Amino acid sequence: MMMTTTASVLTATETQTTQSPTMDLWVTERFNNAGFTFKVNRVVHSSRSEFQSLDIVDTEAYGRLMLLDGCVMTTEKDEFIYHEMISHVPMFALPTPAKRVLVIGGGDGGTIREVLKHPSVEEVVLCEIDGDVIKYSQQYFPTIGCEIDNPKVTLEVRDGVAYMANLAPESFDVIMVDSTDPIGPGEGLFTQRFYTDAMNALKPEGVLVAQTESLMALPEGVKKIYGVLKDVFPYVTGYCATVPTYPGALWSWSFCTKGTGVTPFSHFDASQVEAIAGDCQYYNAGVHHAVFALPNFAKKLIQPKV
Amino acid sequence: MMMTTTASVLTATETQTTQSPTMDLWVTERFNNAGFTFKVNRVVHSSRSEFQSLDIVDTEAYGRLMLLDGCVMTTEKDEFIYHEMISHVPMFALPTPAKRVLVIGGGDGGTIREVLKHPSVEEVVLCEIDGDVIKYSQQYFPTIGCEIDNPKVTLEVRDGVAYMANLAPESFDVIMVDSTDPIGPGEGLFTQRFYTDAMNALKPEGVLVAQTESLMALPEGVKKIYGVLKDVFPYVTGYCATVPTYPGALWSWSFCTKGTGVTPFSHFDASQVEAIAGDCQYYNAGVHHAVFALPNFAKKLIQPKV
Which of B75, B94, B119 is the last residue in one of the domains? Predict the structure, then answer.
């Protein structure tokens, strides 16, 4: 299914003026009976794409915020944590520097921005189902969507599940599954079929990472996702970091390989980190090791297969 | 200033029945224009002590929750992270196992519960300014306040600043400053005078840890606290972990010594961890190292003096 990036199903609402400063406006994401709330200075944009509602607001505490179907996707203030974690951890784990990288989801562009810091990269494919996410990120999040037009980027605005099923074997050094939650348009990205296709598309010494949800707010979901991953991949572990604006804050990512001896540390060379990722706000060589030191309760949920 | 633990200034409200299930009741802590919100099943207790308001509610997502002056102090579901972090990190760093430990604040009892897992401990002094926190934690948080009556615990219900000023030199192996925020009753616990007295009360190879606020929600405050600590102690570093229900989630603690060669790792013996802290939900030997691997933005705020 190929889609254009231009049209929203409903007309977008553009608010050109700042809301009255006397109005105490807040936006809240509630998930499993708890939530995060932000004071809002201005509703910048609201529209509905073929797949989901998309809202952009300016918050007082976290800068500009994008919501999809009412769920926080990214904020200007803390996006660096999620995007540095999903990208640099696998990139620095490879035995040889990555040339071809695939990002599934990630239409805001933050993940590819980090990937492109690695000079070895010749092509990044960004496969995002919802062209509106790309379009409005470029328009409204200049610090996040800034590399989407980079000539090394190939845009595939289509369903990641179908895209993955049709790839030639051993196409990519790294696959990053930068999805929304298991409910909604991202649902197919949590299935055994999808991960079997992903393993097929991965080079022998490649690494697949996926965002695997909140250890605190969705523990049973985490367990289930790792069950699926361990059914498919010979080597599966997980790592975690804090994303303050995501439900439960303590977020997890999987690290999966074909079992050819590539672990998070087997080929890690700390001396390369400063030159490539020295401007990172979160990631560094110490963090690369630290994020795999799982708290006891997280170990029980992930149960690494190593 | 000595106080009794019995009387609240205002009469406590006890709600014996569960709120009507059709009422959509939420409690929200807002801090610097962002906040965390919890669905509430029942308001268990509300009172006002000499120092602060104290509310206890049953939440759907995080179990029972205590608020002081409207700020989240502890929840049944995630309290283990904060309490394991402030206690086991210094306890396992000592050259010889701790005999005498001082906890300033920490009236809920969670920190001393963890300290008392260490069999070497002969006495823990719990110096909490507000006797109501102790009283209602014992009454309403049986899994947290469970060790307050332990014969090894000495209760000092008084101001921690005055208590610290009158201690004999080299009285304690570990001092844990388990305070509220720098505004309100905890204010004096963030001053140079207090930390000078604390250093004096610390044994030569002792360790002081203090909760040092949110790296994400109060970065300038963190910087200021570490400035004060570095004015006093010859060796100051920091560590961090996620407390989902605290503002900004990514929380910090300081690790300070008298500069006698005791670092977080200098005397750490991973083989001791399982026997003493094997039932922890967060802390383990890997976590002990990992929490000191600061993200780049946290390094800039803390600027360790090592």
Answer: B75
In a domain, B2, yes or no: no
User: Hey, are the CB atoms on A286 and B294 less than 8 Å from each other?
Assistant: yes
Q: Which of B27, B52, B75 is the last residue of a domain?
A: B75
CATH number for the domain that contains residue B64: 2.30.140.10
Which is the catalytic residue, given A58, A173, A178, A197?
Answer: A178
Residues B98 and B242 occupy one common structural domain? yes
pLDDT at A9: 40
Amino acid A19: pLDDT: 75
Instruction: Count the neighbouring beta carbons within 10 Å of the beta carbon of residue A77.
Output: 18
Q: Please tell me if residue B265 touches chain A, with a CB cutoff of 8 Å.
A: no
* Four-point Cα dihedral A291, A296, A302, A303, nearest 10: 120
DSSP bridge partners of A135: none
Q: What is the pTM of this model?
A: 0.93
* Total tally of structural domains belonging to chain A: 2
**Whether residues B123 and B264 fall in one domain:** yes
Is the residue at B3 inside a domain?
no
- Looking at B108, B178, B181, B197, which residue is catalytic? B178
List the single residue in B39, B242, B290 with the smallest CB-CB distance to A242: B242
* Predicted pLDDT of residue B189: 84
* B62–chain A Cβ distance below 8 A for any pair: yes
Q: In Å, how far is A237's CA from the nearest CA of chain B?
A: 15
CA-based radius of gyration for chain A: 19
Q: Which residue of A has its CA nearest to B286?
A: A293
Do A70 and A159 belong to one domain? no
ipTM, 2 decimals?
Answer: 0.92
Choose among A77, A248, A295: nearest Cβ to B244: A248
Number of helices followed by number of strands (H, E) in chain B: 9, 13
CB contact under 8 A, B36 and A32: no
Determine the structural domain holding residue A140 and report its residue range. Answer: 79-302
For residue A7, tell me if it sits in a domain: no
List Cβ neighbours of A248 (8 Å cut-off, separation of 6 or more): A34, A214, A215, A216, A217, A218, B244
- Residue B5 within any structural domain of the chain: no
* Residues A248, A181 share a domain: yes
**pLDDT per position as a tens digit, A104-159:** 999 999 999 999 999 999 999 999 999 999 999 999 999 999 999 999 999 999 99
